[in-house]
Write a structure and sequence with these properties.
Layout: E1 7-19, E2 24-36, E3 40-44, H1 51-58, E4 66-75, E5 78-79, H2 85-91, E6 96-99, H3 103-106, H4 113-160, H5 165-181, H6 188-202, H7 208-212, H8 221-233, E7 239-243, H9 251-268, E8 271-276, H10 279-285, E9 288-293, E10 296-302, H11 303-308, H12 313-320, E11 370-373, E12 376-378, H13 397-402
Helix pairs in contact: 4-5, 4-6, 8-9
The structure holds iron/sulfur cluster.
Iron/sulfur cluster (SF4) binds near residues 313 and 382.
Length: about 400
């Protein structure tokens, strides 16, 4: 049991490979995790560990030469990986949506922000907009009728003189107010514009009317990311996948965007899959974390427990490599060696060539993700009753030199 919340997405044994001239890159190799309503799940790991490919696979957005080889992605009792492209489009953007690191690449440079935001509404909410239009038209007509009614009252008063001065003044004020409110007849386009203006306002964009007329290159990085977030949330999706949404931004803007995402998550009740290499972002916003290494999840726990007591040697390495003010050392802790080649990944535990805690069994048997505590899962032989007491690996001098910590 991971949490009491309702499960909304289940990723089971996902495998996505890339068929390159050099060989098969096993970018995602048996990833499983769940997402629950109203939570932020972090997927963290070094560049190339497969976290972005995992996200793209969920939405069937993996491009050739990549192929989803195996697995299931269950959303609302449907395995998304079995859907045809056209059917998948019904889910993409509406139920599950994604924002990327560089919004400039995601936004169309030759279209104004307004055109692009409106396009999202038109694509996913055409029916709702027409319903709203009917409702607005009814209100508009009722107000018009009321104006006529009031004008008639004034006209009748010319002959019967029944109204007091105050009553006449009140009627005139009401007519003026109603005329102001009905000056523009509601149209499909006016509703679209109003919705676009409102959503920009909700993501904290000052002067949304003006921003709707601007082109993406005329906005700052933070503002562009806000526009992307507004577009992603415009359809009130169940899940927002955010792929390194703050990496390209200045530190202060990063903090603002994270605060915004927290607020919007609470307001829209959208679950967020936060993909990042930055443990600071995880600590700031995530409820639970899945640590990825070389195409696999190696540790999976609540953010609080993971930071308090990381178990997997890779996670320990990542956390101890974070620079903090109280670390007096001149050199930062690092993890020995480098990220493995995913065409020829190491046998057994993929982290074994870099692991200071390595056991003799580690290069022979692949550790499986196993529950070791409440909501705590880890894939490491150190926590497997079958192997935890097996002999420690003796590093050779040459080997240590080759994988020296830099
Ligand atoms: S399984 Fe072995 S090599 Fe892998 S992380 Fe655990 S101790 Fe290290």
């Amino acid at each position: 049991m991971e949490t009491d919340k309702k499960k909304i997405l289940e990723v089971k044994n996902l495998k996505t490979y890339f068929y390159t001239e050099e060989g098969v890159v096993k970018a995602v190799d048996g990833v499983s995790f769940n997402m629950y309503e109203d939570e932020v799940l972090g997927l963290v790991g070094e560049t190339g560990c497969g976290k972005s490919v995992t996200a793209l696979s969920i939405l069937q957005l993996v491009r050739a030469p990549g192929e989803i080889e195996e697995g299931e992605v269950i959303f609302k009792n449907v395995d998304l990986l079995t859907l045809k492209k056209k059917k998948m489009r019904d889910y993409r953007g509406k139920d599950i949506t994604m924002i990327f690191q560089d919004p400039l690449n995601s936004l169309n440079p030759v279209m104004t922000v307004g055109t692009q935001v409106k396009e999202v509404f038109e694509l996913h909410q055409r029916e709702e907009i027409y319903e709203l239009l009917d409702q607005k038209m009814l209100e508009w007509k009722n107000k018009q009728n009321r104006i006529k009614e009031l004008e008639k009252k004034l006209e009748d008063n010319e002959t019967n003189q029944r109204l007091t001065k105050e009553e006449i003044s009140d009627i005139k004020n009401e007519i003026e107010k109603l005329e102001e409110e009905t000056r523009d007849r509601p149209t499909y386009r006016s509703i679209l514009r109003e919705k676009s203006r409102k959503i920009l306002e909700e993501v904290g964009i000052p002067d949304p009317e003006e921003i709707l007329e601007r082109y993406p290159h005329e906005l700052s990085g933070g503002m562009r990311q806000r526009v992307m977030i507004s577009m992603a949330l415009s359809c009130n999706p169940s899940i927002l996948i955010a792929d390194e949404p703050t990496t390209a931004l200045d530190v202060t803007i990063q903090a603002q965007i994270l605060d915004l995402m927290k607020d919007l998550k609470n307001e829209y009740k959208t679950s967020v899959l936060m993909i990042t290499h930055d443990l600071g972002v995880i600590a700031e916003i995530c409820d639970r974390v899945a640590v990825m290494y070389s195409g696999n999840i190696v540790e999976y726990a609540t953010a609080t427990n993971l930071f308090k007591n990381p178990r997997h040697p890779y996670t320990k390495g990542l956390i101890s490599a974070i620079p903090t003010l109280d670390k007096k050392k001149k050199e930062l802790d690092t993890i020995r060696g480098s990220v493995p080649n995913l065409i020829y990944p190491p046998e057994g535990c993929r982290f074994h060539p870099r692991c200071d805690y390595r056991l003799e069994v580690c290069d022979k048997v692949r550790p499986l993700l196993t529950q070791i505590g409440e909501s705590y899962f880890v894939a490491c032989h150190l926590f497997d009753p079958q192997y935890k007491d097996s002999p420690k690996y003796e590093w050779g001098k040459e080997e240590l030199e080759r994988t020296r910590k830099i």
